[in-house]
Design brief:
This protein has 235 residues and is mainly β. The protein is 11% helix and 40% strand. The chain has two domains: 15-103 and 206-214, Trypsin-like serine proteases (Thrombin, subunit H, Beta Barrel), CATH 2.40.10; 104-203, Beta Barrel (Thrombin, subunit H).
């Protein structure tokens, strides 16, 4: 029996959080640990956090599948953001958060999914009826944009899903994270928006964060940083 998307979504759900600021909402996914699991890193889209970073606003994280919530003030977290690739990571002490103990596999920095492969993504859309409900989307890789280190995907990306994990089915339906949802690009050739493509940024753009966290000692994260991630191209 072939693995199903249903199993994959059930597996990835505990790794996903909703992030909210006074002005924006998005989605993030646990992708790295530091200090033997005492510090956790969540990958998301830069535009979901950039305003809160610049204005030192609080960020609420909600682990909806468990009901756990925490308000992170600037001194409670560290943020690494790269506006050029629209990728970001938010890092904070795990404390009593009921996050998984084992990380999901990531697509290696130098690898990419081929055109035509079906992938899925999840997030919390800014739709009243589903604001606190993790929703699943799927589509096929339409193209690989080598200069931008991103995928074009035949599918929609609703506001609020930005930063959500995009993944493919791995062994036994275990999700392999390949990137974060960045944007939806509507087709405006006819003068009015028509169905377009979604942009998924490769998770490898945050590989430096993974390396730093693996070497991190058991100390609280420093205040927010707007350090640029390792990227040679702008999106």
């Amino acid at each position: 029996m072939e693995p199903s998307w249903k199993e994959a979504v059930e597996t990835i759900a505990p790794y996903v959080i909703k992030i909210s600021t006074p002005d924006h909402a998005g989605t993030a996914c646990l992708f790295a640990f530091g200090a033997a699991g005492g510090i956790c890193g969540f990958a998301t889209a830069a535009h979901a956090l950039s305003h809160a970073l610049r204005w030192e606003q609080p960020i609420r994280v909600e682990h909806c599948c468990s009901g756990y919530q925490r308000l992170l003030r600037p001194t409670d977290r560290a943020i690494v953001i790269d506006d050029d690739t629209d990728t970001a990571a938010i890092v904070f002490l795990r404390d009593d958060a009921p996050f998984p103990q084992k990380l999901l596999p990531l697509t290696p920095e130098g690898a990419k999914v081929r055109v035509g492969v079906e992938i899925g993504w999840v997030g919390y859309p800014a739709v009243a009826a589903a604001r606190d409900t993790l929703c699943f989307f799927s589509g096929r890789v339409s193209a690989w944009l080598g200069d931008k280190r991103a995928y074009l995907v035949d599918g929609v990306a609703i506001s609020g899903v930005s930063g959500g994990p995009a993944f493919r089915l791995g062994v036994h339906a275990r999700p392999e994270i390949l990137g974060v949802v960045s944007a939806y690009l509507p087709n405006k050739a006819a003068g009015t928006p028509l169905p377009g493509l979604s942009l998924v940024q490769h998770i490898g753009e945050l590989e430096n964060v993974v390396r730093d966290l693996r070497n991190l000692a058991q100390v609280p994260p420093s205040p927010d940083s707007d350090e640029r991630g390792a990227s040679d191209e702008s999106s």
